[in-house]
């Protein structure tokens, strides 16, 4: 059990992850926050959308850009339940997301603190602040349960 309650954006990202699991998608959820308000929320949907790029982060970033009417998400934060992959990290860079909060690390597919470490590359155009671990237990349990049921 958490000693402190989770910040509301991570709670909403976890709700999105649960929706993904209910839909048979890998349970990852993401929200974009600007000025303390959630402006976009999404969950993984590659199967439903027949789109390998339909990761929670990309869908939330696309919706936030639509809501704001611009491709740069200056002043926005991304909250996601799993460490972003290289594709999503690249989108975060191009969107100019200010801060990334993720719950569970992903040693196999993550690209923030594992693998490619996209934000640390000398050619990286923008480096968001990164905060990891909030909601890690719940996010990791959700993923383990999801994959255990499929094995």
Short description, anyone?
38% of the residues lie in helices and 20% in strands. It has 151 residues and is an alpha/beta fold.
Question: Top keywords for this entry?
Answer:
single chain; about 150 residues; alpha/beta
Any overview of this molecule?
- The protein has 151 residues and is α/β, with parallel strands linked by helices.
- It has helices at 8-22, 46-49, 56-68, 86-95, 136-150, and strands at residues 29-34, 37-43, 76-82, 99-104, 129-132.
- A five-stranded mixed sheet has the order 2-1-3-4-5.
- The longest helix has 15 residues, at 8-22.
- The radius of gyration is 14 Å and the shape is globular.
- The mean pLDDT is 96.
């Amino acid at each position: 059990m958490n000693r402190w309650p989770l910040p509301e954006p991570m709670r909403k990202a976890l709700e999105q992850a649960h929706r993904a699991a209910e839909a048979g998608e890998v349970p990852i959820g993401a929200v974009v926050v600007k000025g303390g308000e959630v402006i976009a929320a999404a969950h993984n949907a590659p199967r439903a959308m027949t789109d390998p790029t339909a990761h929670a982060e990309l869908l939330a970033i696309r919706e936030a850009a639509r809501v704001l009417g611009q491709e740069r998400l200056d002043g926005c934060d991304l909250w996601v339940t799993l460490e972003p992959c290289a594709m999503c990290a690249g989108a975060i860079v191009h969107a100019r997301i200010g801060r990334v909060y993720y719950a569970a690390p992903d040693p196999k597919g993550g690209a923030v603190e594992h693998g490619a470490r996209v934000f640390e590359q000398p050619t990286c155009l923008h480096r968001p602040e990164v905060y990891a671990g909030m909601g890690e237990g719940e996010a990791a349990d959700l993923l383990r349960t999801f994959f255990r049921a499929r094995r």
